[in-house]
């Protein structure tokens, strides 16, 4: 007998997060939500760049020195990163995080070629040797991070945990990357507002979702503007420069990890991203540089 | 002859279960295997038609599934 | 970048994502789309220059995912059969003419589990002199890395035979069959399957419309099926090879070798040529068209009214070749069409490795099949 919808707002992975579930009683709902939050925090701590004891920090610390043993969950994530690298023809590259050092989005300054060049030499998925039990970064200074799909992965894990515990209605929202467990209690879909990429409090469109996942990538999360040109945090691993063309891309897919990867890859592909979206099976809503909204099956 | 063949089949099955190195394909390499022509799904209309025709013109039958039912095909 | 390649990219991203542990509640993926197909078969065979059997068979099949972890499928077919088939060997005169309609339906329900599935099925077919009912249960179990799948199944069928010529009345034929198989991913471009089958049948196996047809009341069949699908990266095509060995207690041994090559072309077209070679030995009680010196045709030599015997061409020793070509077109995201033509010929002299049964005329058959499919 389903009673009420329970909701928890919390901060994780550098974003505002929300878990909403319907459960037979308040006690079990709270318990389940906390188990889900624990899972999000577990992933956050295990793969955080900011914690010296995380597996990611340990791998990066040994770059150019020795291989680091990894468990099967991490092997799986590396495997997924490999698949994305292949599917995006090298545009999605988890070694491109070092380029961050060239871009300080608080100061509106475009880095020079001298600054970018040595960092670009450290970027390259082919320089990662990933085996079944350990991983080795070939050059000193190389860094990998799972920020490109870590939040989405955590959303999927948390939602699956809830679904396997018997939850049939609810969703997990980690900073805008959402995985739905099921519709509202009355069977109606959730009404989700897609943020306007140029209006922080504005909503582009409201879409109805009951299942699957919704993820959005945009040029408005971290950026600066200089001479009327926006420089955002999504960097092309080939030249170290921010991508343009899209203001935001939202994608619906069965799991958050796939939705988020596809929205990011669309941003990375710039002009070719539209062909990619159209050839896929997914519903999408994208806004290009002229403010033009393109969508399929989403509104 | 029948006995030898059954034994060969069992040996092949047993060998496959012992082998740890073949088929070590990682999940991210399975894109091609997901294509329908790479699967063994035989439920299509054409498969059914073909099987039915061969069963009514030849003495061999079956092999791929169970419980297909018979017919008085002449 | 063709549309095919791009959509393959998004699909491969999704399949890679689904493989991550714990991102979705069930691993052996239930289908995400349903499909309905409507098809039509036209079959005709001829022998000794004369048309024999003609079959027109419209059919419909549907597969639907249900509630995320189940799928239901079903099909219906109606065979309109007309023509004549020989009463013995390939004798043209006195052939038994018939006009029959056979309706058959089957339904199955599959439940997808964490690392496998369970399917229960039922089938029913009816024609004016033959009713068949069958039930089956099959399960599959995947290894942790999903590279190996074990399959096991059991089925039972129960047929009632009531021929119009009343040679026998209210006869039955029951059989129980088992299968055990394994499917193994060999490389990213190769997958193979090995299946062992066994069928235990008893009841009425004779053909009431054939002269002097008296077959044993039990039939034990063993089959071994080996299949190999290989993707050719250079052409983006796929070779599909099949070999089946069949052996039964009637003394028939058959080898089937099939090869198909699936070649995707541009614009959503796919062409699949096919070759099938078949050879079988005669049943131990099959007799050649050499008749008793005193009684003449169709009496077998030394006929005394007892013993197993059959002059059914299907139990003779022969070889057969099929050549087929299928063309498919994916019209848009939801619709596709398939069309296939094939030519079949069966000859005693084509039997491989041994002498085929003499004195039988070659049998030729042509089929045309079309199907329209819609996903949702």
Account of the protein in words:
Chain A has an eight-stranded antiparallel sheet with strand order 1-2-6-7-10-13-14-15. Chain A has a three-stranded antiparallel sheet with strand order 3-5-4, with helices on one face. A two-stranded antiparallel sheet of chain A has the order 8-9. Chain A has 299 residues and is of the alpha+beta class. In chain A, strand 6 and strand 7 (177-182) form a beta hairpin. Chain A has three domains: 1-49 and 147-183, ApbE-like domains (T-fold, Roll); 55-137, T-fold; 189-299, T-fold, CATH 3.10.520. In chain A, helix 5 runs antiparallel to helix 6 and helix 6 (256-269) runs antiparallel to helix 7. Chain A is 30% helix and 30% strand. The longest helix of chain A has 22 residues, at 26-47. The mean pLDDT of chain A is 91. Chain B is mainly alpha-helical. Chain B is 41% helix and 0% strand. Chain B is built from two helices and no strands. The longest helix of chain B has 17 residues, at 2-18. The two termini of chain B are 31 Å apart. Mean pLDDT of chain B is 72; it is low at 16-21. Chain C has a single domain, classed as monomeric porin ompg (Porin). Chains B and C meet through helix 1 and helix 2 of B and helix 1, strand 1, strand 2, strand 3 and strand 4 of C.
From the spread of the alpha carbons, the general shape of chain A counts as globular
Radius of gyration of chain A: 20 Å
Sequence of secondary-structure elements of chain A: EEHHEHHEEHEEEEEEEEHHEE
Q: Give the termini separation of chain B.
A: 31 Å
Mean pLDDT of chain A: 91
Structural class of chain A: alpha+beta
Range of strand content of chain A:
25-35%
Q: What is the overall silhouette of chain B? A: elongated
Q: What class would the helix/strand composition of chain B place it in?
A: mainly alpha
- Total strands of chain A: the figure is 15
What's the CATH architecture name of the largest domain in chain A?
Answer: Roll
CATH superfamily descriptor of the largest domain in chain A? ApbE-like domains
Average pLDDT for all residues of chain B: 72
Query: Helical amount among residues of chain A, as a percent range?
Result: 25-40%
Major β-sheet profile of chain B? none
**Quaternary form:** heterotrimer
Please provide the ordered H/E string of secondary-structure elements of chain B.
HH
> What is the count of DSSP helices of chain B, taking H or I runs of 4+ residues?
2
Q: How is the main sheet of chain A built?
A: 8 strands, antiparallel
Which strand order spans the largest sheet of chain A, edge to edge or round the barrel? 1-2-6-7-10-13-14-15
Q: How many strands in all of chain B?
A: 0
């Amino acid at each position: 007998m389903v009673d009420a919808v329970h909701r928890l707002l919390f901060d994780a992975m550098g974003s505002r997060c929300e878990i909403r579930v319907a459960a037979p009683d308040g006690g079990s709902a709270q318990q389940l939500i906390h188990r889900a939050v624990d899972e999000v925090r577990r992933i956050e701590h295990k793969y955080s760049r900011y914690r010296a004891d995380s597996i990611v920090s340990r791998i990066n610390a040994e770059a150019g020195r020795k291989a680091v043993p990894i468990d099967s969950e991490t092997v799986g994530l590396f495997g997924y990163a490999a698949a994305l690298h292949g599917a995006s023809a090298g545009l999605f590259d988890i070694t491109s995080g070092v380029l961050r050092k060239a871009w300080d989005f608080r100061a509106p300054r475009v880095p020079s070629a001298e600054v970018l060049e040595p960092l670009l030499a450290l970027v390259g998925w082919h320089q990662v040797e990933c085996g079944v039990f350990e991983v080795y970064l070939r050059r000193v200074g190389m860094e990998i991070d799972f920020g490109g799909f870590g939040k989405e992965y955590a959303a999927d894990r948390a939602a699956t945990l809830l679904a396997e515990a018997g939850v049939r209605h609810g969703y997990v929202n980690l900073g805008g990357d959402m995985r739905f467990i099921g519709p509202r209690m009355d069977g109606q879909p959730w009404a989700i507002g897609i943020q306007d990429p140029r209006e922080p409090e504005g909503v582009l469109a409201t879409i109805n979702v009951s299942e699957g996942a919704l993820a959005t990538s945009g040029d408005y999360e971290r950026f600066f503007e200089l001479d009327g040109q926006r420089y955002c945090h999504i960097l092309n691993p080939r030249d170290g420069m921010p991508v343009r063309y899209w203001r935001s891309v939202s994608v619906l897919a069965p799991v958050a990890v796939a939705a988020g990867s596809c929205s990011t890859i669309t941003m990375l592909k710039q002009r070719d991203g539209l062909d990619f979206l159209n050839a896929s099976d997914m519903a999408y809503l994208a806004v290009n540089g002229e403010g033009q909204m393109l969508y399929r099956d989403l509104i | 002859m029948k006995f030898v063949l059954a034994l060969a089949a069992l040996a092949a099955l047993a060998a496959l279960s012992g082998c740890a190195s073949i088929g070590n394909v990682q999940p991210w390499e399975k894109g091609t295997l997901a294509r329908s022509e790479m699967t063994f799904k035989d439920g299509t209309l054409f498969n059914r038609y073909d099987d039915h025709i061969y069963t009514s013109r030849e003495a061999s039958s079956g092999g791929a599934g169970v419980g297909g039912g018979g017919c008085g095909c002449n | 970048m063709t549309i095919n390649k791009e959509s393959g990219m998004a699909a491969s991203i999704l399949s890679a994502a689904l493989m991550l542990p714990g991102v979705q509640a069930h691993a052996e993926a239930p289908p995400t789309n349903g499909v309905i197909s409507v098809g039509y078969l036209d079959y005709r065979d001829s022998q000794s220059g004369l048309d024999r059997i003609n079959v027109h068979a419209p059919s419909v099949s549907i597969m639907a995912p249900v509630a995320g972890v189940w799928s239901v499928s079903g099909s219906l077919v109606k065979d309109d059969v007309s023509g004549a088939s020989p009463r013995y060997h390939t004798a043209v005169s006195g052939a038994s003419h018939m006009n029959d309609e056979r309706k058959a339906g089957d339904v199955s329900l599959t439940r997808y589990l964490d690392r496998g599935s369970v399917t229960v099925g039922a089938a029913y077919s009816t024609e004016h002199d033959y009713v068949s009912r069958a039930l089956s249960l099959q399960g599959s179990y995947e290894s942790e890395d999903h590279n190996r799948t074990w399959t096991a199944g059991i089925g039972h069928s129960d047929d009632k035979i009531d021929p119009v010529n009343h040679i026998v009345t209210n006869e039955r034929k029951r059989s129980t069959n088992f299968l055990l198989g394994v499917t193994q991913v060999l490389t990213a471009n190769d997958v193979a399957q090995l299946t062992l089958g066994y069928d235990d049948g008893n009841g009425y196996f004779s053909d009431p419309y054939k002269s002097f047809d008296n077959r044993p009341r039990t039939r034990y069949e063993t089959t071994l099926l080996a299949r190999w699908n290989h993707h050719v990266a250079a052409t983006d095509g796929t070779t599909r090879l099949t070999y089946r060995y069949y052996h039964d207690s009637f003394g028939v041994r058959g080898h089937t070798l099939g090869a198909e090559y699936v070649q995707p072309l541009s614009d959503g077209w796919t062409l699949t040529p096919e070759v099938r070679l078949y050879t079988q030995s005669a049943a131990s009680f099959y007799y050649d068209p050499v008749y008793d010196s005193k009684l003449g045709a169709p009496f077998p030599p030394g006929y005394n009214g007892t013993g197993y015997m059959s002059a059914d061409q299907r139990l003779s020793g022969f070889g057969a070749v099929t050549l087929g070509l299928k063309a498919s077109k994916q019209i848009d995201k939801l619709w596709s069409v398939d069309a296939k033509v094939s030519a079949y010929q069966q000859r005693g002299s084509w039997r491989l490795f041994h002498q085929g049964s003499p004195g039988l005329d070659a049998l030729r058959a042509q089929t045309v099949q079309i199907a329209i499919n819609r996903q949702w």
